[in-house]
């Protein structure tokens, strides 16, 4: 399953257009719509990138979509930068310009920072949390910039007596981005719970490969503790949208598997490792039997987890093709 690393841009775009109350206000409406038009073009590019990231494993194509976002961002920023003010009002234009610049920074500079963290995210639970925090920080920057544009747009409308109406296409795109944000937030919580188990299990595997009974036992105890924490975390996470539990429960099943093995089979494996130099054939067969049984069940549960994660993204992140 591909873990979502999407940088959202929904908050940047108000998705609003205006109609004038009287013919005399046609010019400010046209001025507003020129800025909104660039916003909508950018939003389409962002959604194409988000959709490709969620529904494709092809990193080359995903990166190509991100580059499309950056290229369009530069073009739109240049257009808005060359727009004059309207009857002395430059705030709306300047706020939009600043927002486009912020987006360019996020999709280039901040994106590279996120990628750097992604390289080391599997080293620890803390590293994975920093990675997700970096994604959230990038999205927050866009949200702040977007709020600023929306406020300036509203003041522009008030000053020039424009009536605000919502564009159907923009409303549709904003709804897609809202859904993506909702999925990301939920998915990251579930994944961190799963990752906690994976890190603890890796230590157990290291102890087993080293044939070190003390190391294996210490890892078993750590896994037992991490499993309890994971189950507590999962208990606090509700069903997605109040009804879908498949993704969360796939991790819960994985954790319950470790509860059983930490308290039984892994204990017996520790005892056998402690006498590894004097094992009988029966002991060796029992030890190998534990390993084979573990590998079989672990593979089955991991496959269920990956399938649940893929199904979760496919079900709740819409495919967007403009």
How would you characterize this protein structure?
It is a single chain. With 322 residues, this protein is mainly alpha-helical. It folds into two domains: 10-166, Four Helix Bundle (Hemerythrin (Met), subunit A), CATH 1.20.120; 189-316. It contains nine helices and two strands. The protein has a two-stranded antiparallel ribbon with strand order 1-2. It is elongated, with a radius of gyration of 26 Å. The two termini are 26 Å apart. The model is unreliable at 1-25 (pLDDT under 50). Residues 1-22 form the signal peptide. Keywords: Signal.
Briefly say what this structure is:
The chain is mostly helical.
The number of distinct helices, counting runs of at least 4 residues, comes to 9
> Could you describe the largest sheet, including whether it forms a barrel?
2 strands, antiparallel
Structural class: mainly alpha
What's the CATH topology label of the largest domain? Four Helix Bundle (Hemerythrin (Met), subunit A)
Number of strands: 2
The backbone outline, from C-alpha atoms, is: elongated
Q: Detail the poorly predicted runs.
A: 1-25
Compute the CA-based radius of gyration. 26 Å
In total, the number of domains comes to 2
Biggest sheet strand order reads 1-2
The CATH architecture of the largest domain comes to: Up-down Bundle
CATH class of the largest domain: Mainly Alpha
Mean pLDDT over the full residue set: 84
Give the N-terminus to C-terminus distance in angstroms: 26 Å
Oligomer: single chain
Signal peptide: 1-22
Keywords: Signal
């Amino acid at each position: 399953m591909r873990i979502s690393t999407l940088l959202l841009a929904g908050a940047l775009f108000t998705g609003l257009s205006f109609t004038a109350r009287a013919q005399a206000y046609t010019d400010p409406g046209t001025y507003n719509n020129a800025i909104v038009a660039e916003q909508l073009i950018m939003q389409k590019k962002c959604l194409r990138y988000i959709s490709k990231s969620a529904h494709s494993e092809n990193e080359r194509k995903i990166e190509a979509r991100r580059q499309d976002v950056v290229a369009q961002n530069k073009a739109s920023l240049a257009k808005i930068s060359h727009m004059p003010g309207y009857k002395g009002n430059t705030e709306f234009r300047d706020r939009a310009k600043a927002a486009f610049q912020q987006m360019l920074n996020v999709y280039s500079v901040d994106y590279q920072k996120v990628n750097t963290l992604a390289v080391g995210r599997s080293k620890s639970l803390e590293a994975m949390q920093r990675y997700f925090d970096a994604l959230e920080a990038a999205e927050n920057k866009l949200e702040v910039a977007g709020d600023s544009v929306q406020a300036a747009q509203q003041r522009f409308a008030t000053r020039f007596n424009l009536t605000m109406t919502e564009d159907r296409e923009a409303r549709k795109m904003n709804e897609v981005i809202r859904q993506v944000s909702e999925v990301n937030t939920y998915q990251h919580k579930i994944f961190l719970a799963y990752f906690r188990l994976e890190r603890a299990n890796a230590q157990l595997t290291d102890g087993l490969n080293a044939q070190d009974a003390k190391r294996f036992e210490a890892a078993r105890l750590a896994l037992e503790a991490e499993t309890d924490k994971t189950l507590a975390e999962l208990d606090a996470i509700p069903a997605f949208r109040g009804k879908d539990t498949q993704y969360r429960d796939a991790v819960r099943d994985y954790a319950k598997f470790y509860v059983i093995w930490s308290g039984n089979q892994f204990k017996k494996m520790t005892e056998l490792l402690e006498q590894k130099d004097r094992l009988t054939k029966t002991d060796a067969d029992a030890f190998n039997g534990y390993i084979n049984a573990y590998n079989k069940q672990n593979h089955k549960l991991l496959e269920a987890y990956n399938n649940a994660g893929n199904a979760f993204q496919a079900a709740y992140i819409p495919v967007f093709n403009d």
